[in-house]
Design brief:
The complex is a heterotrimer, with two copies of chain A (205 residues) and one copy of chain B (277 residues). By secondary structure, chain A is an alpha+beta fold. Chain A has eight helices and five strands. In chain A, the strands form two sheets. Chain A has a three-stranded antiparallel sheet. A two-stranded antiparallel ribbon of chain A has the order 1-2. Chain B has 277 residues and is mainly alpha-helical. Chain B contains nine helices and six strands. In chain B, a hairpin with a 6-residue loop joins strand 5 and strand 6. In chain B, helix 8 crosses helix 9. Classes of the chains: A alpha+beta (205), B mainly alpha (277). Chains A and B meet through helix 1, strand 2 and helix 5 of A and helix 3, helix 5, helix 6 and strand 3 of B. Strand 2 of chain A pairs antiparallel with strand 3 of chain B, so a sheet runs across the interface.
């Protein structure tokens, strides 16, 4: 069996998988005697990326590997492909997900503390059913509440390679930065305050 | 909490506020919120929808602050408290299911307000002295994640902005006439069953003597001419190697006598047996 | 918005759908004012076919429309793709499916009679969830049992245009399901039999 060009094998494999494949998984497709090393795989994937430049396809690396996807520029042409509109997530769900993504590991109590409302079980279940969030341990406090974290599937879904590709969180400012005259008649306390007030607070749920 | 309730009737909850025509940064769902209920007199159904767009007391407070372009660090507690109470009152009057968090926040606001109205002892000068500090911290903290949630929502994501590309993998094409069932194939099937029989061998229920003839009768009874029976089902691994051999011989004999017919679709595919009509 | 080449839109749509699309469905992707007629669609699909010639892909027409699939020459390279997570149907399920395919319309009782064992509800549900089997009527006997038949999705999956392209019952089975670890001293004959070895036999009465 003569071997087709590496990039075509990878293309076929990625399209057949319809999902991201890790480099290791791609390597495993080949017999031991003829297994391309990772730099070769990367090179072939970049070649494919080049081939796709003027087409509606993308080869991208996300958390769990490489995948081929229809580029977002094509989406307007595909909007009528599906009967249903893409799922829109509620703010409650997105906020919960954001707190988990940025503060993981985090307990449900801590999420509620940040959001100021109790979190419905449905939301936690949806996030877990979608495979975006999972229990990654238990906080060593009374009740041993579960701590949640995000998964690779979460990163994959949002087209991210790793958590540090998430947009950065906004800054926390200090109350004491404030001009004294805006205060309601309180003396200026700016000098008394430490420079970095802690953003992170440990609260048990 | 009872402190403020008499003060803020719904009608006057946000009286005379100077509202911008549109509220910067405030969105209801995807749409920027164009206008507010200035006097809170809006149809109850609409108000319910309006209030449901808030993700709790922090969200509502942030909204009240933002719509007046106020700095979060400089909340005019008295005014905000009054407005907040106004909304809470309306929610109660409409008997909307009011989450307990809203009432807790009402209490917190009332407490801050009352503390700020009290004369302060001059010696208290540390950074905790401003009773708003904790509220401001929570509001800021919440706002960060609220914005982060919006950022998250604007990331390109699968199923909405991106679609995984999938090609079908066809089955290996298959068409063409079936080969005759060869003895080799038969042996392979036997080997298959024998292998399984090995797993049962330690049971050795009984080493009953099985004659080939007996087994032939039994086999024939298992079959009819209308339906195919899996060849392997005629060999019972639990009888052990010996039983399988007897069963196999019985089948060979039945074939020789043209009482059975075997069908196999392709090499290594399961073999089926049927009684000749 | 400038329109990308028609063939690229179709490629993106077919790959995003991951399944066959009818020409009508493809047409519906376009606004009324700019809707390609079927000959144009066909021409674009054939162009795509040409583009794919030296790659591992193929554009083919099946019962429910056109689809992009991995070229058969590429399939051997993908044989290990799913090794890690085999989603393989049980023998019982495949047998049930085969009986339905060949004897439709057929009731559950009739399937059970053919197979000689009762059929779990899970199997019937799996087949229906999968979209391969559906209820196509009720037998006019006491109890009015549901009669099952196969669907277009079933044909598509097996790359068939119509039921009469179905191979024999036995062929529906996966060769690999035969225990490969036979070690009773028989010569390995696996190499002798190609995957394309002929098999067409009507086992049906």
């Amino acid at each position: 069996m003569t071997m087709p060009p590496l990039k075509h094998i990878l293309e076929a494999a990625l399209l057949a998988a319809g999902d991201a494949l890790s480099l290791e998984h791609m390597q495993s497709l080949f017999p031991d005697t003829d297994r391309p090393d990772k730099p070769r795989l990367r090179a072939a994937l970049l070649e494919l990326q080049q081939d796709y430049l003027d087409r509606g396809l993308d080869v991208v690396e996300v958390a769990s590997g490489w995948r081929i996807q229809v580029a977002s520029g094509m989406v307007p042409w595909l909007s009528r492909l599906w009967e249903e509109k893409p799922v829109r997530y509620s703010r409650a769900l997105l906020e919960t997900l954001a707190v988990i993504a940025y503060r993981q590991p985090v307990t449900r109590g801590e999420i509620e503390e940040v959001r100021g409302v109790s979190i419905s079980t449905t939301i936690m279940r949806t996030l877990q059913d979608r495979g975006w969030v999972r229990v990654i341990g238990h906080r060593d406090v009374p009740g041993r509440p579960a701590m949640f974290g995000t998964t690779r599937a979460f990163l994959d879904h949002f087209n991210l390679k790793s958590l540090d590709q998430l947009p950065s969180l906004g800054e926390l400012r200090d109350l004491n930065e404030l001009h004294p005259e805006l205060d309601l008649g309180f003396p200026d306390t700016a000098d008394a305050a430490g420079p970095d007030s802690p953003a992170r607070e440990s609260t048990d749920g | 909490m009872t402190v403020e309730q008499g003060e803020a009737r719904p009608e006057e909850a946000v009286p005379g506020e100077e509202l911008p025509a549109t509220v910067p940064g405030v969105r209801v769902g995807k749409e920027p919120l164009r206008e507010l209920p200035r006097d809170l007199y809006i149809p109850p159904d609409a108000l319910e929808v309006f209030l449901e767009t808030f993700e709790g007391p922090l969200d509502l407070l942030l909204y009240l602050i933002r719509r007046q372009n106020l700095d979060i660090l400089d909340i005019p507690i008295a005014a905000i408290t009054r407005q907040y109470m106004g909304y809470v009152e309306v929610m109660k009057e409409l008997r909307l299911e009011l989450a307990a968090e809203y009432l807790v926040m009402a209490a917190v606001l009332a407490e801050i307000k009352s503390r700020m109205l009290l004369p302060r002892p001059p010696q208290v000068e540390d950074e905790e002295s401003d009773p708003r500090a904790e509220l401001v911290r929570r509001l800021q903290e919440y706002e960060r994640y609220k914005n982060a949630a919006e950022d998250l929502d604007s990331l390109p994501r699968l199923g909405r902005d991106l679609h995984p590309a999938t090609a079908i993998v066809p089955e290996v094409p298959r068409e063409s006439p079936a080969p005759d069932v060869s003895l080799d194939d038969l042996l392979m099937a036997l080997a298959d069953v024998m292998a399984r029989a090995e797993m049962f061998s330690h049971h050795h229920v009984q080493r009953e003597v099985l004659s080939v003839r007996e087994r032939m009768s039994w086999t024939l009874q298992q079959l009819n001419s209308e339906h195919f029976t899996a060849f392997s089902s005629l060999l019972r691994p639990e009888e052990g190697r010996r039983g399988v051999v007897v069963g196999f011989l019985a089948i060979l004999e039945l074939i020789r006598e043209s009482l059975l017919e075997l069908v196999q679709a392709e090499p290594f595919a399961p073999i089926y047996v049927r009684a000749r009509a």
